[in-house]
Request: fold
Amino acid sequence: FATFPPLGLVLVVMLGIGVAEHTGMIAAALKVFVSKVPKVTITFFLVVAGMLSSVAADAGYVVLIPMGAAIFMGMGRHPLAGIAAAFAGVSGGFGANILPTGLDPMIAAFTEPAANLINPEYTVNPLSNWYLMAASVPLVGIAGTWVTEKVLVPRLGEYRPEGGMIVEEVNNEVTPQERKALKWSMISVLIVLALVAAAIIPSDGLLRGEINPLTGSPSMQPFYNSLVPIMFIIFFVAGLVYGIVSKTIKNDKDVSDMTAKSMSTMGLYIVIAFVAAQFVAYFNWSNLGSVLAVKGSDGLNAIGFTGIPLLIAFIIIASLVNLVMGSASAKWALLAPIFVPMLMLMGYSPEVTQAAYRIGDSYSNILTPLLPYFPLVIVFAQKYDKTAGIGTLISMMLPYAIAFMIARIPMFIVWIWLGLPLGIEGPIYYEQAAQTGHSIELHDEKPEQLTQSTYYIEESVY
Reply:
C-alpha cells in the first residue's frame, strides 16, 4: 500500500487543485467563461464549461449547476433545462477536457500496474488519452446542446413557478477584485509554462534525457515523468496568486488550511487505494491476472470476438458497472487488472483499454442515483419544482446519456480506425513480442509436475 503508485501521484495533484479550488479561482473562472459567451451559444458553452469544471473536484456541481438554472431562468427559459445541461456537461462529459485534470494521473496509475502483469517494464503516461479526451469536448458540447434545445426545452415548456414558491437568487457576478486576481493568476500560469518550455525545448534542457538512438534527439522521458509535479505547480501557483490578490489568502495558515481541506476529501480514495493495492498485489502473487488474460484472450479469439466489437462491448460493460458503482477509481481498480492484460494479449495497448473505460464511465454517470452528487442536483431542481425527484432527474438525463453514447463511441471507433495517437505516448496497438521480447504461454500440466501453481506462467525469450 505504501508504495502503490496511484496513492502519491493523485494526492500530489489534489494538493495543487485544492488551493486553486478553495481560493475561489476555479469558480470565478467558470463564471467569467459562461458570462462572456453570446446568449445564442449559451447552452453549448454551459455544457462545455461543465466538462472543463472537472479540473476541480466539485466546482461544477456546486457552482455551475445552480448557475445554469439561474442563467436559463434569466433568459425566460425553464431553469430545469439549465440544470440538466450543466449536469450533462459536468457528469455526462466527465473526463472529456482540453486541460489535464486530476483524473488523468489517477486512472493512468491504476492502468500501469495492470499492464505490468504482462510487461513489467511498461509505463503509462498520465496524458496518454489527452488528445482523444480534448477532441471529445466539442462533440459532447454539440450533442448536449442538441438534446437541450430539441428535446428537453420543448418537453419542459414554459416555466411557471408554483404559488408561494420563492426562488433564491444565485450570484453569478464576478467582482472587479476577482477579475484582477484572475488576470494575475493567468499571468502566473503563463510564466510557469514558459519555464517548462525553457526546460524542454532546448536539446540540453533540464527536462530532456539521453539521446534516443532512433530519433537522434534527446529523450522527452524526463518531461513525461514530471507531468504530475508540473500539474501540481501550475494549479498551486495559480491558486496562490489568485488567493493573495483576491484576499482569500491572508497568511500561510490559510494555505495550509486549504490543502488540508483538499486532503480531507480524499479519505474515500485512500481507502480505495488500500484495497486496490492488495487486489493488484494478490493478482501479481497468484498469477491470476495472467491466467485470466490468457484464457480470456484465447476464448475471445476462438469465437472471433475481437477488434472493434470487443472494444464496444467493453465500453458497454463499463457503463453498466457504473450504474451500481459510482467511484471511477474503484471501478477501474476492479476492471483494469482483468481487461488491460487481456486486451494487451489481443494486440491493444493499455491506453486503448483505458480510453474505452473512460468513455463508458462517463455517459452513464448522469443516470445512477449512486453518484455522490445526485442528491445535490435533486435539491437544486426542487428549488424550482417541488415535485422533482429521482425519476424526474433520470427522465431528463436519459436523452443526454443516449446522445453522448451515440456521439462518443463512433468517434472512438473512427479514431482507432485512423490509427491516431490517443495522447502523449498513447499508442493504439501493443505488440508484445516485438516490443519486449517476451511472451506468455499457458501450460496445463499434471499437479505433481508443477512447482508452484496449477498454471505455470512461462517466459520465453526470442
Q: What stands out?
A: DSSP finds 19 helices and two strands in the chain. The chain has one domain: 5-174+270-430.
